[in-house]
Amino acid sequence: MKQVTLKQIAENLGISITTVSKALKNYPDVSKKTKALVKEEAKKLQYKPNVFAVNLRTKQSKTVGLIIPEVVHHFFSSVINGIIEQAEKKGYLVIILQSNESYKLEKKQIDLLISKRVDGIMISLASTTVDISHLQEVQSLDIPLVMFDKISKLIPCSKIVIDDRKAAYDATKHLIDSGCKRIAHFRGALLPQNSIDRFLGYKKALEDHGLTYDPSLVYICENVNYEEGREAAERLLKEHNDVDGIFTITDLVAVGAIAVFNERGVKVPDDISIMGFSNWFVSQAITPSLSTIDQPGYEMGKRTFKQLYKEMKAKKEGAPLPPKIKTLDTFVIKRNSTK
């Protein structure tokens, strides 16, 4: 079916294209009767505005890009919901891309979004991202950029984050307050800033409460998934049977560990207590239910788009805003995996 144009509507009604255009936009210098006729004819012909022409005129694509490490992660799905809710209110389409924790794919996706002429970009970095030249290119092209969750401190852009160090400190302190004396940490890869900060928060909590930091109790989970949680728990049982507490970088890793302990007859929390991080829905579904840190993904998504929108609007008005860092609150949720 051929796309209906303003010219066709004008010819059908015997009026000018300009009058049709003004009527559809509710210009005051067009009579109510003419507006009604034009809108009725447009509806009958199933007329759709030419988005590309509008974009050329306004110099806006009304699209924004979103790059996340993984869609299936409960935290990131919550972020997406928050972003889309706000974007729809402002009439924006969100192009959602998944980097799969790959720097190379992330770089290609940035190039794609630039080629699509998006009005702004939101990104949570892949764990393997070290080179930030692709993000510097975004800024050199004057495209508003907002980072969230997994960020780079080297890019001077707005960021929506939590205080990962404090949250990890609070999680470890909860284990200590519940009586744990020998606490392991199942951490993420060495590179991501949030992985670094959660490790540092864990370490600081031990030091502040008179517990010796033992590097052999730190297990690296490169992909931060269920399988690695199982593997780390298996190794822990072989290497350190005196551990009475574990702080994990995410709930999914904790769930993997709990599965192993349940299979081996290790009682949680009587023999060993476990703290997660993020407050996934699964943290309440397992047995025992998982104590964790509430990470406000939905709110982070809302704040991320709102900040991007402010910067896109300011750019259009010729008054760019300085970068802003917003830190959202977190808190400990006590469930049955800790005493």
Structural class: alpha/beta
Order of strands, main sheet, comes to: 2-1-3-4-5-11
Helix count?
13
- Low-confidence regions: none
The largest β sheet comes out as: 6 strands, parallel
In round numbers, the mean pLDDT is 93
Residues in β-strands, percent:
5-15%
What is the name of the CATH superfamily of the largest domain? Response regulator
Helix content: 40-55%
Shape: elongated
Task: Kindly report the CATH topology of the largest domain.
Answer: Rossmann fold
Q: How many distinct beta strands? A: 12
Radius of gyration equals: 26 Å
Query: Which CATH class of the largest domain is shown?
Result: Alpha Beta
Give the termini separation: 67 Å
CATH architecture of the largest domain: 3-Layer(aba) Sandwich
What is the domain tally? 3
The H/E string reads HHHHEHEHEHEEHEHEHEHEHEHEE
Give a description of the structure.
The protein has 339 residues and is α/β, with parallel strands linked by helices. The protein folds into three domains: 6-49, no CATH class; 61-161 and 297-328, 3-Layer(aba) Sandwich (Rossmann fold), CATH 3.40.50; 164-294, Rossmann fold, CATH 3.40.50.2300. Helix content is 46%, strand content 15%. It is built from 13 helices and twelve strands. The strands form three sheets. Strands 2-1-3-4-5-11 form a six-stranded parallel beta sheet, with helices on both faces. Strand 8, helix 11 and strand 9 form a beta-alpha-beta unit. Helix 1 (6-13) crosses helix 2 (17-24). The protein is elongated.
